[in-house]
Amino acid sequence: MTARFALIGVVVSDMAASLAFYRRLGLVFPEGAESQPHVDAELPGGATFALDTEDTIRSFHPAWRPPADGGRVSLAFRCEAPAEVDALYAGLVDAGYHGELKPWDAFWGQRYATVHDPDGNGVDLFAPLPTAE
């Protein structure tokens, strides 16, 4: 038997703030999830993206404490086109989220940018650059 990847879990300090951020990135969570200690969103391909409050984690792991120096996970969202990276980045920064790395054309052939979610986790936005012919 081989294990297969199935879930990305992020521990959040404020469920409502995190849901607002990830909904802006297109993830679908149930209405009213803001008051829940755990919430899931199904991802294309069958994996699950889960958010848990810090109190939920402490309920079964009492010694757990969040990292003192920010997030320890990086997530990436693929956009359809370079202009979408720019627009999504601008919309998130305009909404008050921290823009860590402004959109730029990476040498590996992608338009790339990074924002932070409400808990300081890096969230990359990328799209393939058009190829020169």
Description:
The strands form two sheets. This protein has a four-stranded mixed sheet, covered by helices on one side. Strands 1-3-2 form a three-stranded mixed sheet. It has helices at 15-24, 54-60, 82-94, and strands at residues 7-12, 38-42, 48-53, 74-78, 99-106, 110-116, 122-128. It is an alpha/beta fold and 133 residues long. The model has no long low-confidence stretch (mean pLDDT 90). The chain has two domains: 1-66, 2,3-Dihydroxybiphenyl 1,2-Dioxygenase, domain 1 (Roll); 74-133, 2,3-Dihydroxybiphenyl 1,2-Dioxygenase, domain 1 (Roll). 23% of the residues lie in helices and 33% in strands.
Q: Topology, please?
A:
Blueprint: E1 7-12, H1 15-24, E2 38-42, E3 48-53, H2 54-60, E4 74-78, H3 82-94, E5 99-106, E6 110-116, E7 122-128
Parallel strand pairs: 1-3, 4-7
Antiparallel strand pairs: 2-3, 5-6, 6-7
